[in-house]
Amino acid sequence: MTVESALSFFLAVLVFGITPGPGVFAILARALVNGAGSCTLLALGMIFSDILYLIAACLGLAAIATHWSELFTAIRIIGAAYLFYLGYKMWTAPVSAEAMSDSKISRSGMATSFLQGFLISASNPKVILFYIAFLPTFMDLSILTASDIVLASVLTLVALMIGIMSIAAFAAKARGLFRSERAMKRLNRSAGSIMAGAGAYLALRQ
């Protein structure tokens, strides 16, 4: 991968990362309720899934998707159902003084957050299509080397973290406007609606 293609790939992934979709909606919902810091493991889970898709695309994901389309459909439906569940949990979340401040996440909570991010991204067909469609634009897959894959993975990690955490920081700033319990209750329900909307988007997307 040349310097020019690496830079172009980085910018393309950055734009892809902030494009509205289930992952962005999930980050917005989490940041609105718990602040930007709570989105770090969620974002890393999403990015880890993206990197796996990137590597798979380099190794022939197009052929895999053609023969295992039913499996991808099942993953998408499961992911959509999970987003609906998260939306319900946010909608019904109790409001307290503790809830109106950034809460610390336990180790089990960190693992759960990472898994949530992984499932959200893994069940989004847009991720698969992006890497299948755009990788040939930035690199010659016929002469791809291990170092090219490592470089593309690192660029993906950095670009997506910048994009996703920028969205989280923006949402967290907006969260500062909601300090009363009544406002927080509305915020929780708004965040839950966003999450459920992400589930509907994912379920209806072909």
UniProtKB/TrEMBL annotation:
Superkingdom of this protein's organism: Bacteria
GO molecular function term, any single one: amino acid transmembrane transporter activity
Signal sequence interval, chain numbering: none
Transmembrane segments: 6-29, 41-65, 71-88, 109-134, 149-174
Keywords of this entry: Cell membrane, Membrane, Transmembrane, Transmembrane helix
Record's subcellular location: Cell membrane
GO cellular component, one term: plasma membrane
Membrane-topology descriptor: Multi-pass membrane protein
Main subcellular location of this protein, as a coarse class: membrane
PANTHER family with a match to the protein in the record: ARGININE EXPORTER PROTEIN ARGO, ARGININE EXPORTER PROTEIN ARGO-RELATED
Protein name as it appears in the record: LysE family translocator
Species of origin: Marinobacterium marinum
